[in-house]
Design goal:
14 strands; 22% strand; 10 helices; nine-stranded antiparallel sheet
Length: 379
């Protein structure tokens, strides 16, 4: 990033972070001390919206504290709408859009995906063409399932996401809103080089396992070839959390639900936050150190036979819970993990999903290649 790009001071603003949905560990701190907190005093740089891949997935590496996701129906053709949305995104990220009312966009990112109805019309049986199945512990009405277009807006300034979303809808009235949800992440914990993760509303660190390096992202996140190359499959789920029930549990029982120690995030199988969980480790009496229904066991990618997900999970206060957003190269990464979790996951027993959908997060774009043009053609 060039030195002349605008920078603003980050403010320590917010609340708790999102809930763990993949709990494996990859990095570390001393096992007997709380994980170090990464402060929010660093400068915030603008994030270029154009390029091979959309911003707001793997960039910026320091995930913003504020998120607003909205899902829409589309009245009209996809190609011209998406191209125009891309132009709005560039204006917003540069600070030129009047809808920001002169407020610095900072590290604003806007990420756009399309639902299975639009994707399957041009990519039959291709990425994004499959709808997300329903799962146990859901209470999702028709309005809060699926949708034609999803927009994820992230920023460090809490004023920026709602202003950016309002500006986008003013510019593009063909988008008919189905539902929206705001979320926030708290201060982050150092996990490994280039990767941090926040604590969640339950007090546990969320997102310890994540693809970070270019090779890991290529394996886990990016669609490798075809018209959707550089895109990703995006899953969005809003979950209410029974925090009261969880809080009433003794700390040892809470740790058994998650499969990690609360203070330092070490796996119950031993080691520290830098160590992967040992699913085979047993106590002298033969019991698994990580219980059979612990979240980190049921959500671990290895037994499911899938790569890691890249997640941008945020806590919500209305309803109290989690807005789970994951990116993966194939939908099966999520579905096979979710099938294992649905069989027996102590954490899922405390959740009710109230909105859900899978989307094709579009490849990157620039002035010569409008948003969505590799899939829907030029407008």
């Amino acid at each position: 990033m060039s030195p002349d790009q605008s920078r603003i001071s980050r403010r320590t603003l917010l609340r708790s972070g999102g809930l763990a949905v993949l709990g494996t560990a990859l990095v570390g701190c001393a096992p007997d001390a709380p994980a170090p907190v990464v402060t929010d005093d660093a400068e915030v740089s603008r994030v270029p919206p154009e390029g091979e891949r959309q911003a707001g997935i793997a960039s910026p590496s320091a995930v913003q504290s504020q998120l607003l996701v909205a899902v829409f129906d589309l009245d009209g053709e996809a190609a011209p709408l998406l191209a125009a949305v891309g132009e709005t995104i560039v204006a917003l990220a540069s600070g030129r859009h009047p809808g920001l009312a002169g407020i610095e966009p900072g590290d604003l990112t806007v990420t756009v995906g399309v639902g299975h109805r639009l994707a399957s019309a041009v990519l039959p049986d291709g990425p994004g063409s499959a709808a997300l199945d329903a799962y146990p512990r859901e209470d999702v009405d028709e309005r809060h399932r699926h949708g034609d277009v999803v927009v994820q807006i992230c920023a460090s300034d809490p004023l920026v996401p709602p202003l950016a979303m309002t500006a986008l809808l003013d510019d593009h009235p063909a988008l008919g809103e189905r539902w929206r949800q705001r979320g926030a992440r708290g201060p982050s914990v150092a996990v490994r080089d280039g990767h941090t993760a926040p604590r969640n509303v339950l007090g546990f660190v969320d997102g310890i396992a994540a693809p970070v390096t270019p090779d890991e992202l290529a394996e886990s996140v990016w669609i490798p070839d075809g018209p959707a190359a550089g895109g990703s499959i995006m899953v969005v789920r809003r979950m209410e959390i029974d925090l009261t029930t969880f809080r009433r549990l003794p700390i040892a029982a809470q740790e058994a639900v998650i499969g990690r120690r609360r203070d330092d995030s070490a796996p119950l199988s031993g080691g520290d936050i830098s160590d992967d969980v040992n699913l085979q480790a047993k106590a002298p009496d033969g019991a698994y150190l990580i219980p059979v229904d612990a979240h980190v066991r049921r959500a671990h990618p290895r037994p499911a036979g899938v790569p890691l997900m890249l997640r941008r999970s945020y806590s919500t206060d209305d309803p109290l819970g989690l807005l789970f957003v994951s990116y993966q190269a194939e939908l099966r990464t999520f579905t096979q993990t979710m099938e294992r979790m649905s069989e027996s996951d102590a954490l899922l027993d405390l959740t009710t999903t109230t909105a859900a959908g899978a989307f094709l997060a579009l490849p990157g774009f620039d002035a010569q290649h409008p948003l969505g043009s590799t899939i829907f053609g030029a407008s």
